[in-house]
Input
Amino acid sequence: MTLSELQQQRREADKNYWDNRETIDEWTRHVLERITKAADKMSDFCSQRARKVNVSDAVIRTEVIPDLLGYALQLANLFELDVEEQYQQRVNEVRAKIEKR
Output
């Protein structure tokens, strides 16, 4: 499945199940809260690893990464961006900066 197809799937899911927020501000606040929770999970994982605790990466693999992709797709839909196009543009910008070094 392409990013564009995933974005369309996310758009349909949000319309069918989560379209109860009326403003872009409410949506972005909600997405930010969810991103923060994902970052907390990553922080906990990193903290445990730094203390040499033998911790599974299952939460990162099964929750954090898929959730972050979903949040990126939601934001792209909110701001009416083609996520695939924007991602490729960003990759090219970063590559160009690295090559200038």
Observations:
- Residues 3-100 form one domain.
- DSSP finds four helices and no strands in the chain.
